[in-house]
Fold:
Amino acid sequence: MTSTSKRNVLISGASIAGPALAYWLHRSGFAVTVVEKASALRGGGYPIDVRGTAIEVVRRMGILPQLQDAHIDSRRFTFLDAEGSEVASLHPYAVAGSVEGQDLEVGRGDLTAALYAAIRDDVEILFDDSIDTLDQSGHGVDVVFRNGQPRTFDLVFGADGMHSHTRELLFGPEEQFHRYLGYCFALFTMPNTFGLARELTLWNTPGRAVALYATGHHDELHAFLNFHRPEPPFEALRNPDAQRDLVATAFADAGWEVPGIVDAMRDAEDLFFDMAGQIRMPSWSSGRVALVGDAAYAPSFLTGQGSSLALAGAYMLANALATQRDHAAAFAAYEHDTREFVAMNHALVDNGGAALFPTTARALEQRNAMLRDLVTTPPTTPRPAHSALTLPEFDPKS
Structure:
């Protein structure tokens, strides 16, 4: 391993991949700046999974005990039919393909807070700002910020999510890399008028699903509305009113408690709407700029592996840069060593990762029969895609 001589790097995005990359690059002797368009660390958010290889990443970062303390430890998933009658009630691990006692489910805010605490004293963090333009040259990357003064960095990393502005600046519009998976979804919080505690209730009809998730004994639920749509509604991504109308129309004739949940969606101040999709790119870098996490290879929520891929990918990118002085060689090694793991997790959707959201009556009947079988014969092995990547030892000697 060679010395990095305090190379000056910029990371765009302070959610999961960005802070994880910042941690490991600082360990290697890089001078790290993180820029985040939000005005502060983002708390809250829907529960997320940390599984397989990613568990080893957070263990090596020293934040595993915090995440274990924050583990939600849901007791059951209950599936309902169109009228609200129970189809099956199972332990979450039987549904998610996780390993009980090893894999974790935590609030998104708990993970981002742990990552932020691990870097805040060691790296420069610029909130309420973002990259406006990038201009690469032989000596570095000239960056113009939306609010701050222009600066030059040796390397720049896009960790700014599925709709990455860094990727757009570098490679062009998202549409050319976006693989739409046929669903749209809305997330928000609403009052827990159902008396749920540490459990998820999922209502299904063909092409539509409503999930209510209680992460504890709280007065608040995480609500999730998912519906099939053949064509991606790109035009609605930046129009909250259009998003609410789109969701309401999709669930207009739904039964059970869905009308009240849709009303809560219209009143929610924290609505998050997006399309289920993946980012698939032929290359994750260009010149002195590289992408990591959802910006490079978002697997979609249907796989449950977005956060885990972000953590593992950040580790592999940082390790390649610590090992290889030449950034082009490092970026090539990062892709070579990580791409198969990414592909395996992308394939989870093709291998049944969307089975919870059938789009036809026949597929829903088959899904329900599978769930009833799981009640009597739960799976005993995790999905191999979760743990297919073996992490190299990270031992910087800068």
Notes: The mean pLDDT is 90.
